Amino acid sequence: MSQPNPRRPLLIPPRLFYLALIIMTLCAFVFPGPVVLDAPWHWLGVFPLALGAWLTLSGGYRFHRTGTNIQTFDSPTHLHTDGLFRWSRNPMYLGFVLMTVGAAMLFGTLIPLLIAALFAITCDRWYIRFEERAMTQTFGDAYVAYCQRTRRWV
Question: What is the tens place of the pLDDT at every residue in 79-88?
């Protein structure tokens, strides 16, 4: 069983996601920047938002069902390579990113879209890179082979 990491950062992925949404909402009303998606086109943001929620919840449910550690900074306990994980090594992060992009599209202005891009970069460079190192240490050649046949995002 995975041992909890007592030094786990407070800014775990779901918290960063909620923080990004809060900042996007504040910026949309206080300093939105130029409009990039006018009404009614901004409603297209519902689609990535819904798809992202489905991906994140489905991946999380899969981890829960199999007893897999979901905490980013704790030791990995299982290598999932089927289902959603056959198409993306990070379907839950992909889901979070799609939700932030969808929310930014709903706001329809530039600053929320830039925050969504910053969120995606943070997931890729900080969380995913950390997890990839831990997965390589834990699962070795099996994880390397999985990385060779499955893309990081899609």
Answer: 999 999 999 9
Q: Rounded to 5 degrees, what angle do the CA atoms 27, 48, 26 make?
A: 10
Residue 104 to residue 95: CA distance in whole angstroms = 14
Q: Output phi, psi for 35, to 5 deg.
A: -75, 130
The tens digit of pLDDT for each residue in 29-70 reads 999 889 999 999 999 999 999 999 999 999 999 999 999 999
For residue 154, give the 3-state DSSP assignment.
coil
Of the candidates 82, 90, 150, the residue with the CA atom closest to the CA atom of residue 124: 90
Q: What are the tens digits of pLDDT across the range 109-122?
A: 999 999 999 999 99
Paired strand residues for 35: 109
Q: Which residues, at least 6 apart from 59, have a Cβ–Cβ distance to it below 8 Å?
A: 84, 85, 91, 92, 95
Q: How far apart are CA 140 and CA 145, in angstroms?
A: 9
Q: What is the DSSP letter of 125?
A: I
Type of residue found at 86 = R
CA distances from 7 to 3, 104, 135 (A): 12, 32, 19
